[in-house]
Amino acid sequence: MTAAVTIQPEKQSWRRLFLAAAAIILLPMIPHVRAFLPIEQTMLLVIPAIAACALAGWRNGERLAFAALWTAVAVWMLAQSAGPAGGSYDFMARGWALLLGACFGLSTILATGLSFFPRALASLGVATVISFGLAASGPGGSARVANVAKVEFTRRNSESIANLQRRSDSKEWKEMSANSPSLAEMPAMSEAQLRTIPPYSSTIVAALLGLESLAVLAFAWAVYHRFATHPVAPPLGRLREFRFNDQLVWGLAAGATIFLLPRFVEGRSAGLNLMVFFGALYMLRGLGILAWMTRGRALMVALVFATLLAWPLVGILALGLGLGDTWLDWRKRAQSV
Questions:
Q1: Where are the domains of the chain?
Q2: Backbone angles phi, psi at 295, to 5 degrees
Q3: Taking the CA atoms of the chain, what radius of gyration do you get in angstroms?
Q4: Which of 8, 102, 217, 234 would you call most buried, defined as having the most Cβ atoms within 10 angstroms of its Cβ?
């Protein structure tokens, strides 16, 4: 057994944890989010990851009951169907949840003391390589995964559109929208938007799955640290402190090269997925820089509202700041002035 690593517990804020839990649970209920989210049963990913952390913590002196409880819940969760029972999506979703949780737990056991993001990124990388190998060795290869995703996104869209039409045909909605033409047009606009999403979301499903996996692992890590008495590694840091190894810029560069150069036309989908995944990471890094710049509650609230109201502009600004931070290290420069 590995030697126990003593780390001073640092409890996560209940308020932030509740907000994150609300986002994890409620966002998949929004039709437009469902059309992009690879695995809409987010708890299917969260619970096994928490169980893996609890088992690793048990090796570090954590209570056995704590690990046993989360493991039992994870086993029950993995035994439930994800989507239509027995379908390809059901099999792939549960398989990914088990594989991701196992890789994350193994990294927690083997690399005690490592901070969250390198651990989560390494776990995601190992799980991706294993799953790609399994998909490539099966009938249809990796193209089958994209096809399963497209079928699943289309199924969800059909459900969402049917619910939308049912509500728009209801007596209550007609009475509410009778005096508001713009409100009356909303169901048709939403339906048109939903119909255009599946071709795009199925093309970048690998990048979306990677980003979703990192998000749920972060939430699982926060929940684990909130309840654990003997955490095996430091808790999540603040957004304003978020950064990662500068060498990851080569992932974005490789994606752009594959996507843009004509000689790699057959790999454009892979290039696009790399660009979306690493671009999102650098955008998050840029948001961390903006959060660092806007110290103080009033400025932080203003940043949140600006992101919600003008997210394309804020996103482009954050991406530029995140990429520039690779060479310029904005926070270090500002501190030295």
A1: 8-236, 238-337
A2: -70, 135
A3: 22
A4: 217
